[in-house]
Amino acid sequence: MLRTIRPPARRHFVVFCLFALALSGCGPSGSEKYTVTGTVTFDGQPVPDGHIIFAPTEAGLPPDAGKISRGKFELTATAGKKRVEIHASRESGPSIP
Q: Any idea of the CA torsion for 21, 22, 25, 31, to the nearest 10 degrees?
């Protein structure tokens, strides 16, 4: 009786592929990333410079943040409920002593 023996490299490749398939479904929920774009205005005018933060409402997850430039922003964020924070400043009128 003749028996075919597979080369070890081929067996390792098949095991690796099965392992990779098993791991592909693993990971924290909400880890999908999405591109988020938009415009930020204040008093009807684009915010010239600042930062926008998408803070998750679920504890223990990191926030997603991006730069605001001439009122526009673009960033990559994870899915889920978020609280939006905008940090920007502008010069005001003359200071009163």
A: -90
Is residue 17 one of the residues assigned to a domain? no
Tens of pLDDT, residue by residue over 13-27, are 444 444 444 444 444
Q: What is the pTM of this model?
A: 0.62
Residue 68 CA to residue 41 CA, distance in Å, equals 10
**CA–CA separation, 1 and 41 (whole Å):** 80
What is the helix (H) or strand (E) element at residue 39, kind and residue range?
strand 33-39
Does residue 48 belong to any structural domain of this protein? yes
Domain count, the chain: 1
Distances (CA, A) of 93 to 82, 90, 96: 34, 10, 9
The reply to whether 96 falls in a domain is no
